[in-house]
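Q: I'm building a small set of examples for a reading group on sequence design. Run inverse folding on the following structure and report the sequence directly after it, with nothing in between.
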């Protein structure tokens, strides 16, 4: 059982320590300004992904991006100190060990992100030779304690899109852990039973983030009544057996599984076209979605550990102290949201959830 029971739960209200989002896309420019307030309202901290154009590959670029995020926060009226963006660096074949040391010493980046080249949005610059050209960087990360965040899919075109995560474990994760057993690794947006089993039993400092969409939906939802592009993300939704395994992992007492929404904003036009972008927008209602999943599993008492404790513990950061609440009640997800000069469609738009988030 949890050592601390700092939440209070009734049939109508769940009060927990304020959570953090350990995997978030904020984009840049007008898009950034449109979405930052949604995350800052629900979370105290968020790990910000570096896959911009161009990608955030150096300390200087991370510091410049952080400055733009803070400016957007100011424009959105977000109180200073109420929300902390945690920056990351984008791993390429040309990343230098010196940049890793600089990131650690300055605190400019909390982690380094591995996008296998071509795996997802803006991943073309990703590493192509992890254990070859990136070995010295990984050795340095292991030495200084800077975590590696992995998008866990192989990009071999011969591999079925639904099998890419399972193959990644055999082809990348196992050799990686053997070569660098003390490297801190987060297997991000886990989607399969194979992934759950691997993370649960792996030796060394390994953890995983879980998204609300992969815990609530299986792949059938993408095709109900036609193709539904706003449920399309990468890694793609999987079979029901995998969804159940993810939900069981999230609601278990294992400290290795924690919240990472992977909220990924794309305009409605970029989602609803002949080659729609991958990504689900959940920043608006992330905690309502997670509460729905935990409620369905009958494990609301485990939500606080998943959302508020395990992430900071893995990263070696203090837990938050302020609290937030979720209340039972009808929350109708908006059909569209403002997104600069365009609009964005949140996940499950138009549907009604049984939880409402509120700040204390």
């Amino acid at each position: 059982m949890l050592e601390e029971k700092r939440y209070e739960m009734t049939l109508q209200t769940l009060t927990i320590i304020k959570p953090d989002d350990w995997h978030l896309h904020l984009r840049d420019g007008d898009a950034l300004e449109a979405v930052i307030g949604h995350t800052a309202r629900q979370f105290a901290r968020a790990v910000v992904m570096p896959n911009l154009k161009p990608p955030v590959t150096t300390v200087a670029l991370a510091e410049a991006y952080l400055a733009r995020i803070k400016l957007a926060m100011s424009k959105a009226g977000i109180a200073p100190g109420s929300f902390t963006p945690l920056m990351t660096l984008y791993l390429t074949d040309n990343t230098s060990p010196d940049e890793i040391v600089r990131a650690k010493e300055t605190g400019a980046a909390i982690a380094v992100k591995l996008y296998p080249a071509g795996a997802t949005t803006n991943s073309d610059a990703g590493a192509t030779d992890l254990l070859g050209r990136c070995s010295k960087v990984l050795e340095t990360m292991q030495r200084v304690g800077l975590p590696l965040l992995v998008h866990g899919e192989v990009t071999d075109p011969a591999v079925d899109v639904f099998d890419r995560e399972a193959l990644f474990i055999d082809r990348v994760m196992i050799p990686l852990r053997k070569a660098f057993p003390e490297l801190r690794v987060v297997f991000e947006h886990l989607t399969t039973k194979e992934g759950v089993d691997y993370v649960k039993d792996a030796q060394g400092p390994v953890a995983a983030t879980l998204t609300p969409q992969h815990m609530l939906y299986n792949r059938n939802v993408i095709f109900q009544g036609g193709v539904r592009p706003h449920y399309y993300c990468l890694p793609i939704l999987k079979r029901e057996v995998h969804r159940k395994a993810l939900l069981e992992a999230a609601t278990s007492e294992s400290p290795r599984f924690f919240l990472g929404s992977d909220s990924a904003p794309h305009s409605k036009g970029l989602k609803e076209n002949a080659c729609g972008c991958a990504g689900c927008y959940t920043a608006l209602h992330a905690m309502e979605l997670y509460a729905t999943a935990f409620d369905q599993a009958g494990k609301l008492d485990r939500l606080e550990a998943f959302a508020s404790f395990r992430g900071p513990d893995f990263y070696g950061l203090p837990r938050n102290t302020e609290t937030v609440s979720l209340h039972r009640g009808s929350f109708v997800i908006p059909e569209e949201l403002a997104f600069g000069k365009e609009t964005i469609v949140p996940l499950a738009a138009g549907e009604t959830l049984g939880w409402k988030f509120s700040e204390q």
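The two ends are 26 Å apart (CA to CA).
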